[in-house]
Design a protein that fits this description.
TIM Barrel; 8-stranded parallel barrel; globular
Length: 233
């Protein structure tokens, strides 16, 4: 299993939220590029970067994303506000290896089909889950149920899924294993987990479910998990 460090951008800084609440923001570093370089030096094989301002329609950190992509040699998967093909193309042109589709994918599986037709497996479909339903628009609205959304998205060619448990995001309460047990029954596509990881045992529990990777944020910043504990050669 690959452990993917998360870098969430808001107002040009590296932050972490608690269950997606911008009012519960913790600023960890004013220089996200240095954070990216540090994760790479510690052995990260991929980075997960989200432009929270773009996701909420409140601005953009595109210039910082470009700097991160130029500063590291490992692949970057980028999300936040990628709701048109032009936005997907721009993200990839800026240096991202994968474009993460969230709101637009949940509301319109046809958009996923179109994106896959153009860029293939460089698409990563985000399914952000609250109370069994897919959350959209920066996690402020609720869409279809997970049992409906994932099969529909797989049917139009989604190459892999990033499944986030919103109730566990930023809490370090442990991953929602029951959610991932359900999700792996819904599709044969690779699954990346996100939300709740605190220690190395959490990573191992997700690995046992057969997941491809896990995105980890707060645990790395808080020091309850070190990359060297979970990075495999």
């Amino acid at each position: 299993m690959i452990v993917i460090p998360a870098i969430d951008l808001r107002g040009g800084r590296c932050v972490r939220l608690f269950r997606g609440d911008v009012a519960a923001e913790t600023v960890y570093d004013a220089d996200p590029v240095e954070v990216a370089e540090r994760f790479q030096a510690e052995g990260a094989r991929r980075l997960h970067v989200v432009d929270l301002d773009a996701a909420r329609g409140e601005g953009s950190n595109r210039h910082i994303v470009r700097e991160i992509c130029r500063a590291v040699q490992i692949p970057v998967q980028l999300g936040g506000g990628l709701r048109t093909l032009d936005a997907v193309f721009a993200a990839l042109e800026d240096g991202a290896a994968r474009a993460i589709l969230g709101t637009a994918a949940a509301l319109n599986p046809g958009f996923v089909e179109e994106a896959v037709a153009h860029v293939g497996d460089r698409v990563l479909v985000a399914v952000d889950v609250r109370d069994g339903r897919v959350a959209t628009h920066g996690w402020r609205e609720l869409g279809p149920r997970v049992e409906e959304a994932i099969p529909a998205l797989a049917a139009v060619g989604a190459p892999r899924f990033l499944v986030t448990s919103i109730q566990r995001d930023g809490t370090m309460d442990g991953p929602d294993l029951a959610l991932y047990e359900r999700v792996v029954q819904l599709t044969d596509r690779p699954i990346i987990a996100s939300g709740g990881v605190r220690v190395a045992e959490d990573v191992r529990a997700l690995r046992e479910l057969g997941l491809e990777a896990v995105v980890v944020g707060k645990a790395l910043y808080a020091g309850t998990l070190r990359l060297e504990e979970v990075v495999r050669g």
